[in-house]
Amino acid sequence: MSFYESIEPFLFGGFSGMFATCVIQPIDTVKVRIQIAGESAKGGVGPLTMGRKIIAEEGVAALYSGLDSALLRQATYTTARLGIFRSLTNSREAHHKGNIPFSEKFAISTVAGFFGSIIGNPADLTLIRFQADQTLAPDQRRNYKNVVDAFSRIVKEEGLLALWKGSGPTVARAVSLNAGQLSTFEEIKQYVTKLRGQNDAITRIIAGAGSGVVASVVSLPFDNVKTKLQKMKADANGVYPYKGMMDCFAKSIAREGVTGLWVGLPTFIIRIAPHSIISLFVLDWLNSTYGPASRKKK
Q: Do the beta carbons of residue 77 and residue 120 sit within 8 Å?
């Protein structure tokens, strides 16, 4: 295997994720604001209402707040998770000489999500803070200038390890999301291909949409907690509102109820499903057109 062939899955994965993020960034910003509103006992805000509120108070550009952090997150997290997933999948497909069992797909998805989330957490942290900044009192806002300024200030003011704040739910979210998304995408694609008799654009879109819904439902509680932990600030006594992931889960349930963990689910599905459709569609197309399968045809 050449050097290019070894890094190809990572290049394809990173490009696919960054392309999809440019499309869905406004939805992601709305999702984060809805989660924060739920934390403040102002839940029940719909995505359209929140979107109009952001535009009216902050302008259209606010919907793209933290886009540089979002792209950096995709360049790290998605490059790693999709690259690892595709590399391991290609290896196991060669071993099985065809389709691999669902149990192996699930395991590969979990491994890819774990390592991808660890690598991408710093960029994810800065993205959440950019998107949440306007919800803080004026004197509490961080007012980062850009992603470089955010990184340097976090390290200077909070220490290097602060870049991995909220990494517990980030890992849990990534593992559940990847297990729900990547493994089911392959399964749904195979099923729809057999049903329709062809693996074309429609098949990939259906598979991406289905896997996006599954991933949204299983990962939203962790995403909710991750948002709260990553945007929190210490009070005047230096005390943070949450001690960690489990404390945040407990306080969120006590304050918002169990269903509060799924606050903004429709918005989250609208955010995850299109990203899943676009990124996995582009990734699958790149793999079939320029990846190992295309080289075998030659």
A: yes
Q: Are 44 and 123 in contact (CB under 8 A)?
A: no
Are 100 and 162 in contact by the 8 Å Cβ rule? The answer is no
pLDDT digits (tens, 9 = 90+) for 36-54: 887 766 556 788 999 999 9
Distances (CA, A) of 2 to 12, 80, 96, 284, 288: 16, 19, 22, 21, 18
CB 207 within 8 A of CB 287: no
For residue range 245-263, what is the model confidence (pLDDT) as tens digits? Answer: 999 999 999 999 999 999 8
Residue 129 corresponds to which tokens in the numbers above? 């803070």
- Which residues fall within 8 angstroms of residue 157, CB to CB, at 6 or more apart? none
How many angstroms separate the CA atoms of 254 and 114, rounded?
29
Q: Could you give the CA distance from residue 42 to residue 33 in angstroms, rounded to a whole number?
A: 11
- Mean pLDDT, residues 221-244 taken together: 88
Q: Is 13 exposed, middle or buried (0-12, 13-18, 19+ CB in 10 A)?
A: buried
Tokens of 199: 């693996």
What's the rounded Cα separation, in Å, for the pair 118 and 189?
28
Q: Please count the helices (runs of H) and the strands (runs of E) in the chain.
A: 11, 0
